[in-house]
Amino acid sequence: MTRRERHETAGTATAKVVVLGAGFAGLNAVHALRTTNAEVTIVDRNNFHTFQPLLYQVSTGYLGPDEVGVTVRSVFRQQRRVTVRVGTVIGVDWSTCRLQLEDGAELPFDYLVVAVGATTHYFDIPGMQENSWPLYTLGDAVRLRSHLLAELERAAGDPDPNAQPATVAVVGGGPTGVEMAGALATMGRDLIGGDVGMRVVLIEALPRLLNGFSDKSGRRALNDLRSRHVDVRLGTSVKSANADSLTLETGESIPTHTIVWAAGVRSNPLGEQLGLTTGKGGGVVVGSDLQVRDRPRVFAVGDAALISPVGSRQPLPRLGPVAIQSGKHAGRQIARLIAGRPTTPFKYFDKGVMAVLGRGNAVAEVPWPGKGVAVGGRLAWLLWLGVHIVYLVGFRNRLKVLVDWGWNYLTARGAGAILVHQGRPSGGSTGLAPRGRTHRR
Questions:
Q1: Cβ-based neighbours of 241, under 8 Å, separated by 6 or more
Q2: Of 8, 221, 273, 392, most Cβ neighbours within 10 A?
Q3: DSSP β-ladder status, 111-114 and 295-300
Q4: Which string of DSSP letters, residue by residue, matches 377-400?
């Protein structure tokens, strides 16, 4: 039966909605369908949702993985007609509207929401993909934490008191890079103790930090990081990377075993793989109601989509609020179509931007009629804390993170200094984990 035939029998058949991706956009699309009688299936390669804005705190040991992740089934335990499917989509038969999964199964749909997020983009810099540590998934954060702890333990165990500290190069001066650099500056002393630390170099190709924030916030971030002894390089591009160093366009080589990539992402290539029209950065091109061009009843949202508000040619940035709002909108439009009502245009409400600079310090900018309001310091940090707690999925996660953050703030101690070696049993070997990045794609 074709999709048209299935909809002609909508009075007797229940609409099948498939949502690809369990990120912010996917979860909110499913939530928006809770008042319909549609059969909803959410597909993701993992069985958990990750709160990505806090991944840098997992990688630096200030939070545990369970505090920023929650199983998808627990999220929808109270919502009827929702099925969670762990799997990977590899193709689609548009003539029969059936998705093809990696395990050979097929999944029919009447409505489809593509919410598969983004992937790391290395801009074809030689050696970067093979020798850097991305920070986009929970697995990325856990692997990077193990590596950083191993580097700190090596530094702590070095008998030479004049030995140089481990160097970490962070590439990218956006919110992720700035937050990561600030946390790295205190990670050694907080988790290991004593004078153990690391040299942190933050590299940004633009002449300022936090592009997208005001100049005032950019300067505040720069001054704060430099006060924490972070070596900030502005207007500096990266030429190449290898296992032991990072080379800048100026020719300077920075010796390091740890390059944290926080400079860019692109939309998940699944959109192209499914034959959908894509634009800049691989984003799926959508109309004003977020339906995919030439594919009625197929929606693309969040980082997977190229969303331009009505009256604007500039696509919205890849931010959590965009994913949340576009996911909700797509779910609501499907509910309208099921009810026989027309769709409505997507309208984005800008709630502002914020970035934490360190314990008790942050920058936040909130839109206000006529002129935005920029705040910094402890007030901005409390605002940042409150917003992140509100958006965390699950009451248990909110309460646990709030308690842990409060304790860490008062005691200046992290939560994750335990180093667990991942690999085959070694018969009691006490050697540290190798630096090999076998997890790279």
A1: 125, 126, 127, 128, 130, 131, 132, 247, 259
A2: 221
A3: parallel
A4: HHHHHHHHHHHHHHHSSSHHHHHH
Cα gap 70→185, rounded to integer Å: 29
pLDDT tens string 87-144: 999 999 999 999 999 999 999 999 999 999 999 999 999 999 999 999 999 999 999 9
Write the DSSP assignment of 251-267 as a string of letters. S-EEE-SEEEE-S-EEE
Q: What are residue 216's phi and psi, to 5 degrees?
A: -60, -45
Residues in the chain predicted with pLDDT less than 50, given as ranges, are 1, 3-12, 424-441
**Are the C-beta atoms of 295 and 288 separated by less than 8 Å?**
no
For the 3-45+87-120+266-338 domain, the top CATH level (class) is alpha beta
CATH topology for 128-263+352-411? FAD/NAD(P)-binding domain (3.50.50)
Per-residue pLDDT at 11: 44
Q: What secondary structure does DSSP assign to 220-241, as a single string?
A: HHHHHHHHTT-EEEES--EEEE
pLDDT in tens, 259-299: 999 998 999 999 999 999 999 999 999 999 999 988 999 99
Strand order in the sheet with 361-366: 353-358, 361-366, 373-376
Spell out the domain ranges in the chain: 3-45+87-120+266-338, 128-263+352-411
Q: What is the C-alpha separation between 208 and 211, in angstroms, rounded?
A: 7
- What does the alpha-carbon distance between residue 198 and residue 339 come to, in Å, rounded to a whole number? 59
What is the Cα–Cα distance from 210 to 359, expressed in whole angstroms? 18
Coil, helix or strand at residue 374: strand
Two tokens, residue 311: 């009256």
Distance CA 24, CA 273 (A): 22
Number of Cβ within 10 Å of residue 262's Cβ equals 27
The pair of structure tokens assigned to 113 is: 């929401």
Q: What is the pLDDT of residue 249?
A: 97
pLDDT at 406: 67
Q: CB burial class (10 A; 0-12, 13-18, 19+) of residue 208?
A: middle
pLDDT for residue 24: 95
Q: Specify which residues 133 forms β-bridges with.
A: 260
Q: Are strands 133-134 and 118-120 parallel, antiparallel or unpaired?
A: unpaired
Instruction: Decide if 3-45+87-120+266-338 and 128-263+352-411 have a common fold.
Output: yes
> 3-class DSSP state for residue 18?
strand
Structure tokens at 154: 């090596």
Beta partners for residue 231, in sequence order: 201
